Amino acid sequence: MARVLGAALVGVDGVPVEVEVRISAQLPRIDIVGLPELSVRESAARVRAAIAAVGEQFPQNRVTVNLAPAALRKGGSGLDLAIAIGILVATGAIEAEATIGTAFVGELALDGRLRGVRGELAMTLAAHEAGCGSIVAPARWSSSASLVPGLEVFTAPDLSSVLAHLRGSRRLVGRPPATRGQAIQAPPCFSEVRGQEAAKRGLLIAAAGSHGVLLSGPPGAGKTMLARRLPGILPPLRGEEALTATRIHDAAGLLGPEGAALVDPPFRSPHHSSTVAGLLGGGTPPVPGEASLAHGGVLFLDELPEFERRARESLRQVLEDRCVVLARANYTCRLPANFMLVATANPCPCGWWGSDQRVCRCESRAIERYRQRISGPLLDRIDMHIRVPGQNWSQLTQPARGRPSSHLRQVTERARAAQRTRSGACNADLGDANLDRDLNATAAATALLGRAVDRLHLSARAARRVQRVARTIADLAEAEHIDEAEIAEALGYREESIDE
């Protein structure tokens, strides 16, 4: 008998897997049990060939490999190395004491080389949570794996190097600590935007409180231009949020072998032909979708009404729960998805309804059908509705006078710091139970909100979102209390919507 620790990837989470190997005096055969998927069952052939390629003897008896916990379905090729080490420990080629406290992850080639797999950071975290002090992984293992504190990461090019390390003849080199990544290209600056001061003010409020935004206006008004400048004023990722975002991108295979920890909030902009699975994730094994890849950053849906209805409406629960729960016949996994939703929409099919620049050519029934593409419950879950009017030529020729993104980023960082000190979360994530405590609104402000809710027929959810936006406006002004002015400005971001 031999026991070796490996790890498997389920969604974006790593799960420790105990590989048990038993060699019995029966006809030569290798059985892998414990709910292995096809990629894991095929590891028997890879392991046999790799062990022979490095000059070791594969046992000529019955080899039974159990992957515990047996109730968890396991996929991928990352258990190859753990199975090979377990077999060699069972045959006595390696001392069992040499593998204690060490996890083994990696795919084996037929000649004994080690190949990388998806989810390096997640599986390294799983090894750490299982009490391991080190992990042996492929040489092209992502540098993000060394972000886990208290765990030494050893990388090896092939199986023979791993065996030499375990036998003490040649020690593997540890992976150096990972550094925080740098942005490949800085996002465009807000100072380049001419005019649209009201829209820029709204996006600053949204960035400060992590509020969802719907930008509506005619074609060419600058909706997409403004949205693509939003990442430049968001604060950098911090602590656990940065680790989770890096783990998600690593599980999706987007970091690469030299991938470092994410430092800037991700900005995901899927095409409007994206499906539900593309937005939420799925597949076998499950892969995170655009909603999870935007965790800690922005999910930008340009031309929201053009998305498939099922794809649009699938975001309703995600915006409430801040996560995606994939429930399938073979598995159930939870994917983090706490993002800012930024969407754009035209007021009508031609885009010129309500504009003073051109005359709308759409029939009233066509306009109504177009607006009904975005359901009321989805609009209700978007905190801020901002109208982006068209610009005339005199406005476009004026010199840009806006504040640069670097300055606006400092403003949002101060507002976010105040929110973390007060409630430990962004205002958009405040739960209803703590909202009244953290709101700190005056009696006049509460009365104004009550009158507005009755006159505008706002739902309870919409009223709560107005309160959260008002709290962010007060934080930007470094005000302790919410007054009537903050409530009035927050209500202005609910009155304008595509449905009007």
Task: Please characterize this protein's 3D structure.
The protein has 500 residues and is an alpha/beta fold. The protein has two domains: 166 residues, Ribosomal Protein S5, domain 2 (2-Layer Sandwich), CATH 3.30.230.10; 306 residues, P-loop containing nucleotide triphosphate hydrolases (Rossmann fold, 3-Layer(aba) Sandwich), CATH 3.40.50.300. Helix content is 37%, strand content 17%. The protein contains 20 helices and 18 strands. The chain has a five-stranded parallel β-sheet. A hairpin with a 4-residue loop joins strand 15 and strand 16. Helix 6 runs parallel beside helix 16, helix 6 crosses helix 19 and helix 18 packs parallel to helix 20. The longest helix is centred in the C-terminal third of the chain and has 19 residues. The protein is elongated. The C terminus is likely disordered.
Please state the average pLDDT score: 89
Low-confidence stretches: 496-500
Fourth-tier CATH superfamily name of the largest domain: P-loop containing nucleotide triphosphate hydrolases
CATH topology of the largest domain: Rossmann fold
Largest sheet: 5 strands, parallel
List the strand order in the largest sheet.
11-14-17-10-18
Distance between the termini: 71 Å
The rough form would be described as elongated
Radius of gyration: 27 Å
Q: Would you report the number of β strands?
A: 18
Strand percentage lies at 15-25%
Structural class, from secondary structure content? alpha/beta
CATH architecture classification name of the largest domain: 3-Layer(aba) Sandwich
Query: In the CATH hierarchy, what is the class of the largest domain?
Result: Alpha Beta
Helix-residue proportion: 25-40%
Number of helices, counting only DSSP H or I runs of 4 residues or more: 20
How many separate domains? 2
